[in-house]
């Protein structure tokens, strides 16, 4: 009788990882390499980059991304800026090419003219996006909650991404935030996205004129989380790590960012929540709204999506997160998804804007 040997089964988690990286690298190559190959074809120039050149165009940004912690911080920051700008240009050109190809099939315009038009449109869009990314707007929302005692002004900051963005951005954010005269400041993660950002570079954060509550985002998890925690506490932040605290007017809850879809429900079930108190929940990503409602959360503040940052990438983000930006109500809970105060990756915004959000909350009036 012949014996047959079975190949060991590939664990499901490994299969998912292989599938994810296969899709990711395919899409990445399509966005980073195809646009420039197509432009070369349209221009018909005498010198044509070879496969090695195109491979390097795609590989270098990834290499910088994964080796940045071993590079001097200043070098890593500038290399990341260059690589992410290249990524932004490639993505914008890719979008224009998707629109161009059907037009090209029908009308067959002059290839050289088409190439220069595509490059010009890409350059103008990227320049517009770069200027827009430097602008920080303020948005004021007025909300009423029956459970709240008195009135409250809260300012939310999210997704600043110091590291990808230079620390000088903090001074502008702090100045604009203080001008709003908030009672409390809430920071919903991704404040920092490069390791070894020292306290001196974060010093402007100590100039906030109101108490600051902070929760971590996914980017803090990827780098020196414990050191970030210590630095921000040193600057006077209240860092909430799956815990709650109380003020005179409300109960404050902060939950660590996690890839687990059940994270909000799991952590809330382990906390001592005051059923009668007005409750504010900080969580980095717009997930767990139903669980928050089940636990009687009144206001949930999140970020993470950047509102897509560069359109039409918002359509992709919308496939992952149902709530892309703005206000959503579910049962007793009002959710707000910030479009972010900074940017990640390319310092560009098209179809979105950076925002500091001011919430003017009104409630029951009680005599002192």
UniProtKB/TrEMBL annotation:
One of its GO terms (molecular function) is hydrolase activity. Residues 152-307 form the Calcineurin-like phosphoesterase domain. InterPro entries: Calcineurin-like_PHP, Metallo-depent_PP-like, Metallophosphoesterase_sf. The chain crosses the membrane at residues 20-37, 49-66, 78-100, 112-137. Keywords: Membrane, Transmembrane, Transmembrane helix. The keyword Cell membrane does not apply. This is Calcineurin-like phosphoesterase domain-containing protein. It comes from Candidatus Entotheonella gemina.
């Amino acid at each position: 009788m012949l014996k047959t040997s079975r190949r060991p089964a590939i664990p499901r988690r490994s299969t998912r990882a292989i599938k994810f990286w296969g899709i990711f690298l395919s899409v990445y190559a399509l966005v980073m390499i195809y646009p420039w190959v197509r432009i070369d074809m349209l221009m018909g120039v005498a010198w044509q980059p070879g496969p090695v050149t195109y491979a390097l165009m795609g590989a270098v940004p990834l290499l910088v991304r994964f080796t940045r912690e071993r590079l001097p911080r200043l070098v890593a920051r500038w290399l990341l800026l260059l690589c992410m700008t290249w990524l932004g240009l490639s993505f914008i050109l890719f979008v224009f090419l998707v629109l161009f190809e059907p037009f090209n099939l029908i009308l067959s315009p002059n290839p050289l003219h088409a190439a220069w038009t595509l490059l010009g449109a890409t350059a103008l869009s990227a320049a517009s996006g770069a200027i827009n990314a430097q602008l920080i707007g303020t948005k004021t929302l007025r909300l009423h909650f029956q459970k709240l005692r008195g009135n409250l002004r809260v300012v939310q900051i999210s997704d600043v991404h110091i590291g990808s963005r230079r620390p000088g951005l903090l001074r502008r954010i702090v100045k604009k935030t203080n001008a709003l005269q908030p009672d409390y400041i809430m920071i919903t993660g991704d404040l920092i996205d490069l390791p070894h950002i020292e306290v001196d570079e974060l010093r402007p954060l100590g100039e906030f004129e109101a108490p600051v509550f902070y929760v971590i985002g996914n980017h803090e998890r990827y780098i020196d989380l414990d050191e970030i925690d210590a630095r921000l506490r040193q600057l006077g932040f209240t860092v909430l790590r799956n815990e709650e605290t109380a003020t005179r007017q409300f109960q404050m809850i902060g939950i660590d960012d996690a890839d687990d879809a059940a994270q909000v429900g799991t952590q809330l079930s382990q906390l001592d929540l005051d059923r009668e108190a007005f409750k504010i929940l900080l969580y980095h990503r717009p997930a767990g709204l139903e669980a928050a409602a089940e636990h009687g959360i009144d206001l949930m503040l999140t970020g993470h999506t950047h509102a897509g940052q560069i359109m039409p990438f918002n359509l992709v983000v919308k496939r992952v997160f149902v709530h892309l930006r703005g206000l959503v109500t579910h049962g007793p809970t009002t959710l707000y998804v910030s479009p972010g105060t900074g940017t990640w990756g390319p310092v560009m915004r098209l179809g979105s804007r950076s925002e500091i959000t001011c919430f003017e909350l009104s409630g029951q009036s009680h005599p002192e």
